[in-house]
């Protein structure tokens, strides 16, 4: 075994509570074969491991690697021609997206993630047209991309059984359209349809193929409440329990989804899931914007996880998630960049700033708003709990995998930073991606000083540019025309979907329960 040591001005091993992080001044992490064997003051580590090779980050802070707990694609929807519409309209506009090689597409976003300190991603895949064999090929290409660049991925192919475009039966909606639109739309939706048996076959095959892989693992994802039946959801929940893998489910992203749940169940989506027995520590609810106070209580009581997608919620007009209420109840909250962050990239440092500042409600009580340690925990340990690597990443402690990011504190705070501000607070408020110096995954410095160790970024980007410089194919042109034709009908479908337009006042009402 090869023993090595990484030394930094500060080593942040993890978060103690929402007000305190565990920070070691002039600290060091000792690792062997990708795992941490000791952490402490450098002088102590040197005395215990005098022959270990030392990498010294002389003006840096070393933090646990960040976890993007909710991710879908490489090239963003905006890049591929879909503006930031409200979510339900956005689905229709995205039908026009160009076909992109899955391997290169995945690398595109992986470059951005790693460069911002992300070492693990939850990749929630979906909407691949074609047979099970074709979908398996696309899934395999995504997984191969993460293995090639050297970052971890907890992968799932999202299960959709119904209501693929609007919150209504596919055949019913298509039949309501003019035949020259409804027919082609029905054909398009069928191309992206797998049976539940095929979904489970895909999951089983991918899980077997990735058994023993250090970087990629497979989990399950019921795509959203409106996309799955109760029977389908519980089939996935039972399979997840049997295989001891986590689940990730979009839920209550928009007020329209809240209304859909009311129409389908007569209650809230969370109450219905609780009644079914679908909630618990293995389930992560992505977005969870339109929770009621009672919903928050149920999520907390069942120890269900939540993934906060702050940028996406803003960009797609979804609303503001009740993060402060969830945090007060002790809910595990991860952080996801979804399709892209607020700056049209996958910048976790910027996303942490956004989450830190977006929930600063009026008042003077520090316990009412997010703190720097709390947000760091969302982007590391709590995010890790939502993935198939839970319990192995998210902290820099003995026995954990050595996934870490070294950020140049000196450069980030130049020319001055008062010492009254805790170093971690100063770093989170001021650091940007250009200050990310080195990213370690399993002890391997996969990114250092702006360069990727295993992949030629410039070549991949050039290949993408060349591929997309070609004219649209006949199939791409057909989908583009269909998207434009369907769009106004989707908008009309939702025109009277709500009893009244959602109020501009905060929709979250705290429960009277203590």
Descriptive account of the structure:
- This protein is α/β, with parallel strands linked by helices.
- The chain folds into two domains: about 5-65 and about 400-455, Urease, subunit C, domain 1 (Roll), CATH 2.30.40.10; about 65-385, TIM Barrel (Alpha-Beta Barrel).
- Helix content is about 40%, strand content about 20%.
- It has helices at about 40-50, 85-95, 100-115, 130-150, 170-175, 180-190, 195-210, 230-245, 255-265, 270-275, 295-300, 310-315, 325-330, 350-360, 370-380, 380-385, 410-415, 425-430, 455-470, 475-495, and strands at about 5-15, 20-30, 35-40, 55-65, 65-70, 120-125, 150-155, 215-220, 245-250, 285, 305-310, 335, 405-410, 435-440, 445-450, 450.
- β15 (about 445-450) and β16 form a beta hairpin.
- The radius of gyration is 23 Å and the shape is globular.
């Amino acid at each position: 075994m090869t023993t090595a040591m990484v030394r930094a001005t500060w080593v942040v091993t993890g978060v103690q509570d929402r007000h305190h992080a565990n920070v070691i001044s002039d600290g060091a992490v000792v690792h062997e074969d990708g795992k941490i064997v000791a952490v402490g003051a450098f002088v102590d580590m040197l005395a215990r491991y005098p022959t270990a090779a030392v990498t010294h980050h002389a003006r840096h802070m070393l933090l646990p690697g960040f976890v993007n707990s909710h991710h879908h694609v490489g090239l963003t929807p905006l890049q591929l021609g879909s503006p930031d519409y409200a979510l339900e309209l956005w689905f229709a506009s995205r039908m026009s997206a160009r076909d992109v090689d899955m391997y290169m597409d995945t690398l595109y976003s992986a470059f951005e993630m790693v460069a911002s300190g992300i070492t693990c991603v939850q990749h929630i895949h979906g909407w691949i047209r074609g047979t099970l064999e074709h979908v398996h090929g696309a899934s395999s290409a995504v997984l191969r991309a993460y293995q090639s660049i050297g970052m971890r991925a907890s992968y799932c192919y999202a299960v959709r059984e119904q209501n693929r475009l609007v919150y209504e039966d596919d055949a019913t909606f298509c039949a309501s359209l003019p035949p020259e639109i409804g027919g082609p739309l029905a054909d398009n939706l069928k191309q992206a349809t797998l049976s539940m048996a095929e979904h489970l076959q895909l999951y089983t095959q991918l899980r077997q193929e990735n058994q023993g892989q250090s970087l990629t693992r497979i989990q399950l994802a019921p795509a959203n409440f409106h996309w799955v039946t109760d029977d389908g959801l519980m089939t996935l929940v039972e399979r997840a329990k049997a295989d001891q893998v986590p689940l990730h489910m979009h839920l209550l992203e928009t007020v329209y989804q809240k209304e859909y749940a009311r129409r389908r169940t007569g209650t809230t989506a969370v109450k219905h899931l609780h009644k079914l027995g679908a909630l618990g520590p293995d389930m992560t609810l992505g977005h969870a914007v339109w929770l009621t106070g009672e919903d928050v209580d149920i999520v907390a009581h069942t120890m269900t996880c939540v993934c906060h997608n702050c940028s996406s919620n803003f960009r797609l007009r979804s609303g503001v998630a009740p993060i402060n209420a969830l945090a007060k109840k002790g809910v595990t909250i991860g952080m996801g960049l979804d399709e892209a962050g607020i700056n049209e990239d996958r910048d976790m440092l910027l996303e942490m700033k956004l989450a830190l500042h977006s929930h600063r409600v009026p008042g003077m009580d520090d316990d009412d708003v997010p703190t720097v340690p709390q947000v760091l925990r969302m982007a590391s340990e709590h995010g890790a709990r939502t993935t198939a690597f839970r319990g192995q990443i998210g902290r820099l402690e003995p026995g954990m995998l050595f996934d870490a990011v070294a950020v140049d504190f000196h450069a980030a705070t130049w020319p001055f930073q008062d010492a009254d501000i805790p170093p971690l607070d100063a770093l989170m408020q001021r650091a940007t991606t250009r200050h990310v110096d080195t990213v370690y995954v399993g002890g391997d410095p996969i990114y250092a000083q702006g360069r990727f160790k295993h992949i030629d970024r410039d070549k991949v980007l050039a290949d993408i540019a060349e591929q997309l410089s070609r004219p649209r194919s006949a199939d791409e042109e057909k989908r583009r025309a269909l998207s434009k034709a369907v769009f106004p009908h989707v908008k009309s479908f939702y025109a009277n979907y709500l009893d009244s337009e959602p109020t501009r006042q905060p929709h979250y009402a705290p429960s009277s329960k203590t």
